[in-house]
């Protein structure tokens, strides 16, 4: 009987240890979130309505980025996107979809564009749009397949994969 109690106590302590380790790991992941880096000479910040009009109504050739500061995928994508823009000597219009000046009507316009050009059912970010000079529209959603930003940062392999995708997306 004493031996059984000792086994049960050991299992309880082991379970509590695993639980505590899990909770600490989740907290560390949440506190180590990199900062949203949308301040770059390659990122142009105009009013969301102006940027959306250029992209949707005017089909103005350019590169457009949509995301927000608390989006883990956005935080992971922006530095890679910035490096690729720098490498290709290009700039992108950047819209914070959670900013005070981003209105619900802006979201409706963006969501309609998103659904039309991605065939997805619902808007998700980060969302990059490239409108080429010939009017062709190319898009990129998220980071890379298999990356779960709230749980882990991208691996070097995933970053390399994203760089290649973005390079192909924004080249002329």
UniProtKB/TrEMBL annotation:
SUPFAM superfamilies documented for this protein: Thioredoxin-like
Stated name of the protein: Putative bacteriocin transport accessory protein
Domain named Thioredoxin: residues: 41-164
Organism for this UniProt entry: Oenococcus kitaharae DSM 17330
């Amino acid at each position: 009987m004493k031996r059984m109690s000792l086994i049960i106590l050991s299992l309880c302590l082991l379970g509590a240890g695993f639980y505590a380790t899990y909770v600490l790991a989740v907290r560390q992941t949440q506190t180590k979130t990199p900062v949203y880096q949308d301040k770059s000479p390659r990122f142009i910040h105009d009013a969301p309505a102006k940027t959306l009009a250029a992209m949707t109504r005017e089909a103005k050739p350019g590169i457009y980025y949509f995301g927000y500061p608390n989006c883990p995928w956005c935080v992971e994508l922006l530095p890679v996107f910035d490096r690729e823009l720098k490498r290709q000597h290009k700039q992108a219009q950047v819209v914070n979809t959670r900013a005070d000046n981003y209105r619900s009507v802006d979201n409706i316009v963006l969501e309609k564009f998103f659904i039309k050009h991605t065939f997805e059912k619902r808007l998700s970010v980060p969302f990059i749009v490239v409108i080429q000079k010939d009017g062709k529209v190319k898009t990129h959603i998220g980071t890379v397949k298999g990356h779960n930003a709230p749980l882990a940062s991208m691996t070097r392999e995933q970053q390399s994969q994203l760089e290649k995708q973005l390079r192909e997306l924004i080249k002329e």
